[in-house]
Each structure stands twice: as structure tokens, then as C-alpha cells.
Design brief:
mainly alpha, single chain, 4 helices
Length: 100
Amino acid sequence: MILRIKKLFAIKSYSLFMICMLLVGTGISITMPYLSLYSTEEFGMSTGAFGIFMAVSSLSGVLINSFIAQRSDSGINRKNIIIFAMFSSALGYARGLLFF
């Protein structure tokens, strides 16, 4: 197991990728509790509607990730996909910060 982890970190730019994933995960874990509060209290969404919203969001995430994985396996440069995903995530959070 330790050898496998050492081999992972031997990959060029893997450490940078891990830092980016850590930051994205931290951002999601900080903002997700406030999403439910904002949706139900400020936006006026019922708890049932919020549950459906979260279920649809999760399922659509799985479908979109499957589609991206299929494209990635067909030969598209994965680095470009990761960079596009990081910028999209950063823009989404920046837009959210500007409107709050």
C-alpha cells in the first residue's frame, strides 16, 4: 500500500492535483450547509423540494461525470478537462461570493 502511494506521488504534477482536489473538497464542505439554509429560508424552497433538488443534482453529477469519463477514455487530453473543471468550479464559487 505504501509503495502504491509512493508511485502515485511520483507522477508529474500529482501533488498539485491533490492540493487542488483538497481545496475543492474544502470549498464544498464549507458551502454545502449554507446551501440548504439559503434554499429553505431565503429562497422559500420546501424541504421536500430541496431533497428533490439535491437528488437530481447528485444524479446529474453522476451522469455528467460518466459522460466526461467516456470522452476522456477516448483520447481527449485529461489535463485540459481537469483545468476546465477547476476554472468552472472557481467561477461558480466566485459568482456565489459576489452575490452574497
